[in-house]
Amino acid sequence: MEARIEKIKQALQSQGFKLTPQREATVRVLLENEEDHLSAEDVFMLVKDKAPEIGLATVYRTLELLSELHVLEKMNFGDGVARYDLRNDSTHHHHHHLICVQCGSVDEIMEDWLTPLEVRLDEEYHFQVLDHRLDFQGICHRCNGRGKPAALDRSKTHAPT
Amino acid sequence: MEARIEKIKQALQSQGFKLTPQREATVRVLLENEEDHLSAEDVFMLVKDKAPEIGLATVYRTLELLSELHVLEKMNFGDGVARYDLRNDSTHHHHHHLICVQCGSVDEIMEDWLTPLEVRLDEEYHFQVLDHRLDFQGICHRCNGRGKPAALDRSKTHAPT
DNA sequence: TTAGGTGCAAATCTTTTGCAGAAAG
DNA sequence: CTTTCTGCAAAAGATTTGCACCTAA
Mind listing the pLDDT tens digit of every residue in chain B (161 residues)? Predict the structure, then answer.
């Protein structure tokens, strides 16, 4: 935990930004809720517990800044709010989501299934892939009663609102 | 063109809705700009040429209604506005987008590359896929100077704003 | 002391909604 | 007539911005 904060601190400082108490509180909230896909409002309410004087605008500015530094990923599941996801270290981050149309949950798959496709894109479409995102809409294991699959054991979940 | 409007009219009427002049003008704009991914505002401005008295709220209501009828697909590329895409007939629609981080263009791939993955999702993740969406961020053929690939000849493009 | 940061409130932008009147079956 | 639909204006909700003050190298 501390090591990851230190790393984020360095990412900020390398670009001339500071890890202020407000930013640190925000980062801690993100680290503590890494399994979820929090919205700015979610983060704001959680940060208020640690630093009640913080303003919503500061949270937005922090999330925006961390997104630009590629510490966070800003994403949109179509529910009207942006959600943010910490990127794991320096390794490629793969965004494969299982979005349940019934309960609204979002599970995240940690495997990368797209490398072969990226090769094809380069060769057949002359497109140089920098990042990707893959979302599936459907019925999750909770709603279809088939039980939790072993493959999801290391997944992140964003519970429905 | 007329045949497709007739089909949409039937989709509306089968659910007790009418193809009003405003809705028809909206649908015609969508048909005439099928290669683009228009926002509600885009559609509104184009519809005004045909029917200057139309209100923005009507456009929003029409787009929402057509999305619910699965005539349109509502999507979000992270630029702050919802964009709409006509679905092709009754066949499955595959949403594979090449989003250029440099010029902002969005090309659409019409192939479906994900069927094998959907099988795996069912078997390994107990997730029943209803729909999917795959976005790649990167540098497009226009920006990297490698020329237009033959594979893109039947693609849709949403030009940068 | 100087650039970066913050909180607050106001502003902006997209989208939705209430309402009274219009259109269609 | 009764339901659906429309335009307008107002409202709502998310995000951004202007500004005066603050805080660290």
Answer: 788 999 999 999 999 999 999 999 999 999 999 888 899 999 999 999 989 999 999 999 999 999 999 899 899 888 889 999 888 764 456 678 888 877 778 888 878 888 888 888 988 899 988 888 888 888 889 888 888 888 776 566 765 55
- Smallest Cβ–Cβ distance between B125 and the set A127, A129, A152 belongs to A152
**Cβ atoms of residues B107 and B157 within 8 Å:** yes
Residue ranges of domains in chain B = 1-90, 93-161
A95-100 vs A128-139, strand pairing mode:
parallel
Rounded CA–C1' distance between A12 and C24, in angstroms = 63
Instruction: Specify the CATH number of the domain B1-90.
Output: 1.10.10.10
Nearest to B95 by CA among B76, B78, B117, B120: B76
A93-161 domain in CATH 1.50.40.10? Answer: no
| Protein-nucleic contacts, chain A 52-71 to strand D, CB < 7 Å | 56-57, 60-61, 64
Interface test with chain A among B128, B140, B142, B146, by most A beta carbons within 10 Å: B128
Output the pTM of the full model: 0.77
Angle at A155 between CA B74 and CA B123, to 5 degrees: 80
**What gap in Å lies between CA B13 and CA B41, rounded to an integer?**
26
